[in-house]
Amino acid sequence: MKYALPYISYTQINTYLNCPHEFWLTYYSGDFTPISNKYTELGSLLHEIFEEQGRQLIEGKSMPEKEAIRIFNKKYFQIDKKYFSDKEDWLKMYKKGAEAIKNYFEAYRNSPPIFVERQFFGEIAEGLPPAKSFIDRIDGDPNDPSSWIITDYKTGASPKSKEYLKNDIQLGFYASQVFAEFGAYPKALQFFHPVPNKFQTAIHIGDGIYRFTNQREPVVEFSVSDTIMTIREVVKKITEEQDFHKVPDSFRCKLCSHYQSGACKPFDSSQLGWLNV
């Protein structure tokens, strides 16, 4: 069995790590229809505004914060009300979005990035399918990738836990792509959480190893080599072992589109176990 997709991505690998069966249903079964919710709708809208503000700065223009709020108001009011339990729920989410824009402008009002939504595509290691990503924002010297600060926007209400930062491979995935294309590791990689106005930044300390700043001991570190090893293991499980077992989780499953559509019944004991195809 070959890897049936034309490239690998962080989302694909992370989906498999969370639940191999979800990966199968999403990418291999041909029966996937994304289901939106209030969180994905808000996240998409904020990403759109942040990207446009960054593009304007790159072009030497400036998007006033009032214009960003005007765009937000117009498009937020168009979100289907079915995603909200009541008017209070709708207003609560609106306030989070408005606060996120305020905090974003505090951080980046007059700071033009060198790239927004920069695509990376290519081989990150021998024997792996090509990797594809779109990185939200890159700052630094455009001619010196070792000076780059890679930023991914996270529009949830809280920063990521240490356990998440320890196990997640997104930032390592991005660093591997920069190194593969330019032969240099970026200076730093970070998550920016505009709702609580928090940065979680990992600094390159050498040899593709990154350490998070402003953490009490034990401080989380990750390495690009470990990230690539994890990707290799996942690709092997998909292509050689054909392991697509379910991982029932009372929280994650209820947010999964396949659970909501009825395609997967994770808590039905008769359907647990391994799916080999």
From TrEMBL:
KW Phosphoprotein (keyword) present: no
Query: A Gene Ontology biological process annotation?
Result: DNA repair
Listed InterPro entries = PDDEXK-like_dom_sf, PDDEXK_AddAB-type, Restrct_endonuc-II-like
Where do the PD-(D/E)XK endonuclease-like domain residues begin and end?
A: 8-257
Q: Which organism is it from?
A: Geobacillus kaustophilus
Cited Gene3D superfamilies: 3.90.320.10
Can you tell which superkingdom this protein's organism belongs to? Bacteria
Nucleotide-binding listed as a keyword? yes
Q: Which keywords does this Swiss-Prot/TrEMBL entry list?
A: ATP-binding, DNA damage, DNA repair, DNA-binding, Helicase, Hydrolase, Nucleotide-binding
Give GO MF terms, alphabetically: ATP binding; DNA binding; helicase activity; hydrolase activity
- This protein's name: PD-(D/E)XK endonuclease-like domain-containing protein
Regions that span the bilayer: none
